[in-house]
Design brief:
By secondary structure, the chain is α/β, with parallel strands linked by helices. It contains nine helices and twelve strands. Strand 10, helix 8 and strand 11 form a beta-alpha-beta unit. The chain binds NADPH dihydro-nicotinamide-adenine-dinucleotide phosphate and (2R)-2-hydroxyhexanoic acid (7N6). Pfam families: 2-Hacid_dh (PF00389), 2-Hacid_dh_C (PF02826).
């Protein structure tokens, strides 16, 4: 592979300013150009993008600036031989820190007080509403970059952590690792279930009514993965009928979440607009991944994070 141009697709603006990404990618010995949907590509191109486009299949290499690549047609990349890399590995602080925010809000009732602040309302929560994270159990579903970061922070907060991953391999700061077929058992004792897995055929609809029924009635679901990992109607019903105590959702079934969606007004839900990974250094983190892979290409090595 011989890269003669880095083409930065305008869709990167969904995560960071286009000009910041272009600037961060300069200085690696390859010309960098911002491109739109009218651009065409050839086998000298590396495309850096948030979203997929059919035209990218004419390039040598496409780098997706997200960890999740569920929107990309992996089979088409394999058929054309265009390399596809993702951005797993850079979200080990951002997303876990957001998750800690969700946990703390629920335990210390901060989301409730923020709502009341708008009305100058001094009402205090009932005596038995607040609790401490220390001593509570968390189940982390997916123990990759994000799941490990969540587990580390939960452990530091004095929580007991169990996890789920395909391999079942042990993970640091995780007392017990289950495999996906044991998901029911993994979530049963958890006060928090945190979804940190990719959206795949196996995880699509994984959190359904039956699984929510297995969860404690005082438990909270946190979804920083992808919306469809959770069955929408099942979650809404579970929140309405008290099957679980609440949910924090950064990833949604439709994005933006429609203005009329019931979750916006749900007292026991925290909704964020897919920003768990946002940081003012996102362009630098992506540039570091691209730079590493340019160096690997020069050395004739395989690409880091290659998914097709
Ligand atoms: P990684 O690839 O590092 O980790 C994925 C983990 O999920 C692995 O531990 C893997 O298991 C596990 N996994 C895969 N399939 C299953 C399954 N069926 N059941 C349980 N666990 C499973 O990815 P990241 O941690 O970087 O990112 C994870 C996902 O989070 C992304 O795919 C993306 O969808 C989402 N994401 C969301 C962001 C946001 O802004 N909200 C930001 C970044 C990512 P094993 O270890 O055995 O392979
Ligand atoms: C944008 C991150 C991912 O998969 O969904 C996230 O990486 C988007 C900052």
């Amino acid at each position: 592979m011989d890269i003669a141009r880095i083409a930065v697709h305008e869709s990167v603006a969904k995560a960071c300013p286009l000009e910041s990404m272009v600037a961060a990618l300069e200085g690696f010995g390859v010309p960098v150009e911002a491109v739109g949907d009218d651009a065409s590509f050839d086998t000298g191109d590396c495309v850096v993008t948030f979203s997929p486009r059919d035209a990218f299949l004419d390039a040598a290499w496409v780098h997706g600036i997200r960890a999740g690549y569920d929107e990309f047609d992996v089979e088409a990349y394999e058929a054309t031989g265009t390399a596809l890399t993702n951005s797993t590995g850079i979200h080990g602080d951002t997303v876990p820190e957001t998750v800690v925010g969700f946990l703390t809000a629920f335990a210390r009732r901060l989301h409730v007080y923020r709502d009341r602040q708008r009305d100058g309302d001094w009402t205090q929560e009932p005596y038995d509403a607040p609790f401490t994270l220390t001593g509570e159990q968390m189940c982390v579903v997916g123990l990759g970059t994000i799941g490990q970061g969540v587990a580390d922070r939960a452990d530091a907060l004095g929580m007991a952590v169990v996890g789920v991953r395909r391999s079942g391999d042990p993970a640091e700061n995780v007392e017990r690792v289950y495999t996906p077929d044991e998901l029911d058992a993994a979530v049963a004792d958890a006060r928090f279930v945190v979804l940190c897995c990719p959206l795949t055929e196996e995880t699509d609809g994984m959190v359904d009514a039956a699984l929510l029924d297995e969860m404690r009635t005082d438990s909270y679901l946190v979804n920083v993965a992808r919306g469809p990992v959770v069955v929408e109607e099942a979650l809404l019903a579970a929140l309405d009928d008290g099957t679980i105590a609440g949910a924090a959702l950064d990833a949604h079934w439709e994005e933006p979440l429609p203005e009329t969606h019931p979750l916006w007004d749900h007292d026991s839900a925290i909704v964020t607009p897919h920003v768990a990974a946002f940081t003012n250094r996102y362009h630098e983190d992506i540039a570091a991944l691209v730079q590493e892979n340019l160096a690997r290409i020069d050395r004739g090595e395989s690409l880091r994070n290659r998914v097709a």
